[in-house]
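For practice. Supply one:
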Amino acid sequence: MRARVLCLVLALAALGGCQSTSASGSGSTPTPGPDTPHQTLRFRPVLIDPAIGEPHIAPSTSNPAPITDPAKAAHVRQAAQLADDPGAQEAAFASLDCSKPDPLKGKDDPTLPLAACDTGNQELLLGPVLLDGKAVDKASYLHDPDQNAWVINLSFTPTGRKLWADFTGTHEGAYVAMLVDGQVLSSPKINGRIDGDTQISGGFTEQSARDLAASINNH
């Protein structure tokens, strides 16, 4: 089976316009054990910053007093008007410090937008969740020779596959963020409709890719 894969690009590289690729095989599917943690997988669209007319993907600035209380952080970073209110966006990013632990880790409201960080300590402005782990039938891990990297392969449920195909088919040229416990692993550009498996890259080692795949399978 050949899985059509999104061009997985991180942070500023996402704006470079790389192309979709393909990968063969679905990899190894780890079985969750009794000590396997559950990690929340979510897909969110990357929103356009109205001030620049492009997705907001920018280096995080140092914040000497980030909001660390989960309730207060949610109030600012998940404000309902975040998508189109520059003042709300400025306040949300001012509350972030991507170099420090996230008070919203695994606690973000899927129905609201979100100001979040990626693994490169960059800020992103994201819309409400469009897919979550319930849409995934199984997660496996494999070494992709084209990227020379360990990646996670996601096989969707029939409902998840249709939602993903419909979204990617109608949002060509847009960006989508793939998050685990509220942290963005990748923010790829959609180069066309994807009717099948999708892979996530994120600088994984073999062990970290296996562990994440197992935790995603731990529904």
User: Anything to note?
Assistant: Confidence is low (pLDDT under 50) at residues 1-24.
